[in-house]
């Protein structure tokens, strides 16, 4: 399967997951489905809720609690983003409580996300 058809297949699976809460899996996308299910606990794509923004001591506590995980994950996320070679993708590292620790995406996508946030 080439990269384009893989991304189209993944996009269709995402739409099915958002609409029905499940998607048929195989061994190659089982990990991704588990990730989507974990994220769904904190952010339902069908119902937008403004995320809570951490700052000050709360933000510092989150980063210090996850420092090693963030350090290791950063390299993995950067490598995956580079290998994917698709500026339509974003990779996020989210801690078990739903706090976003890392966002890796194209500048264009980051600017779009920033507009939605504000």
UniProtKB/TrEMBL annotation:
InterPro entries: GAF-like_dom_sf. Keywords: DNA-binding. One of its GO terms (molecular function) is DNA binding. This is DNA-binding transcriptional regulator DhaR. It comes from the Bacteria. Gene3D superfamilies: 3.30.450.40. The gene is ibeR_4.
């Amino acid at each position: 399967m080439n990269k384009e058809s893989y991304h189209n297949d993944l996009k269709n699976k995402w739409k099915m997951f958002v609409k029905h809460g499940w998607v048929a899996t195989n061994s190659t996308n089982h990990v991704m489905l588990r990730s989507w299910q974990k994220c769904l606990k904190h952010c339902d794509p069908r119902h937008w809720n403004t995320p809570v923004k951490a700052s000050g001591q709360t933000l510092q506590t989150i980063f210090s609690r996850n420092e090693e995980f963030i350090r290791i994950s950063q390299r993995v996320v950067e490598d995956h983003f580079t290998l994917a070679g698709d500026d339509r993708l974003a990779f996020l590292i989210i801690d078990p409580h739903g706090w976003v620790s890392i966002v890796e995406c194209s500048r264009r996508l980051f600017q779009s996300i920033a507009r939605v946030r504000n």
